[in-house]
From TrEMBL:
GO terms for biological process: DNA repair. InterPro entries: HAD-like_hydrolase_sf, HAD-like_sf, HAD_2, HAD_sf, PGP-like_dom2. Transmembrane segments: none annotated. GO terms for molecular function: phosphoglycolate phosphatase activity. This is Phosphoglycolate phosphatase, putative (AFU_orthologue AFUA_7G00760). It comes from Emericella nidulans (strain FGSC A4 / ATCC 38163 / CBS 112.46 / NRRL 194 / M139) (Aspergillus nidulans). Pfam families: HAD_2.
Length: 239
């Protein structure tokens, strides 16, 4: 039976943003802590787990905290704000949809399946990228969920992004009050997405082409896996 709702992750699933994130993280360090630049491999390790910006920057800080002009080098709000400002200028142009993204979304919409996005990324950046690449309007904007729409600390894999944010919006848009176990398909590339699927009673479609750590993701035994985004259409047909 076809899923009654399909939720997509964004980074590493619909859009290839690894270069954008890596560049923006390094430029943020250049701006706030120019004496230290994290390596791409260190950044990729965190991206592969779906870590949000504040956790990424905290984990990437030098082992010995450094002060700049008497100010602690790590202030979460400053780092995240600076990163998002830099990303909007330098990262956004590097963010590209994976081949077949538009075809996939249009095909699923034509099947009458409600579509949503839940990302730990800033929702403004998600919507901007969709618009810039001709994908705006395919998914109802009310059903695109990201920062700062989560309660504090309740991003994926915590289920509240679904239960407390998306579900009320689905009720408003479609009149849907809930879903039974296995009626939702979560499409994502990292262990965060697979665990999120488990936490909301959804089936997981793992995007092997994305940014996730293969060993970690395989251990969680997602219900399906795809090597290209277009393959999600076959997964849906087989459910």
């Amino acid at each position: 039976m076809a899923p009654k709702l399909i939720i997509f992750d964004f980074d590493g699933t619909l859009f290839d943003s690894l270069s954008a994130i890596t560049t923006s993280v390094q430029l943020t360090f250049n701006a706030l802590l120019p004496s230290y630049t994290p390596t791409p491999s260190d950044i990729h390790r965190l991206v592969s787990r779906g870590a949000p910006p504040e956790i990424t920057f905290m984990a990437l800080q030098p082992q010995s905290p450094v002060s700049v002009d008497g100010v602690d080098a790590f202030d979460e709000e400053t780092w995240v704000r600076t990163y998002r400002q830099i990303y909007s200028v330098h990262g956004h142009p590097l963010t590209k949809p994976y081949p077949g993204a538009k075809e996939v979304l249009l095909s699923l919409r034509e099947k009458g399946i409600p579509l949503a996005i839940i990302s730990n990324k800033a929702v403004a950046a998600v919507k901007s990228a969709l618009e810039s690449h001709g994908l705006g309007g395919i998914i109802n904007e009310e059903l695109i969920i990201g920062e700062p729409m989560f309660a504090s600390g309740k991003r994926k894999p915590h289920p509240e992004g679904f239960t407390e944010v998306l579900l009320p919006r689905l009720k408003s848009v479609y009149g849907t009050v809930g879903y039974d176990e296995g009626e939702v398909l979560m499409v994502g590339d990292t262990i965060t997405d697979i665990l999120f699927a488990k936490n909301i009673g959804a089936k997981a479609c793992w995007c092997r082409f994305g940014q996730g750590n293969r060993e970690e993701c395989e251990k969680e035994s997602p219900e399906s896996g795809i090597d290209e985004l277009i393959d999600v259409l076959g997964v849906v047909d087989e459910l």
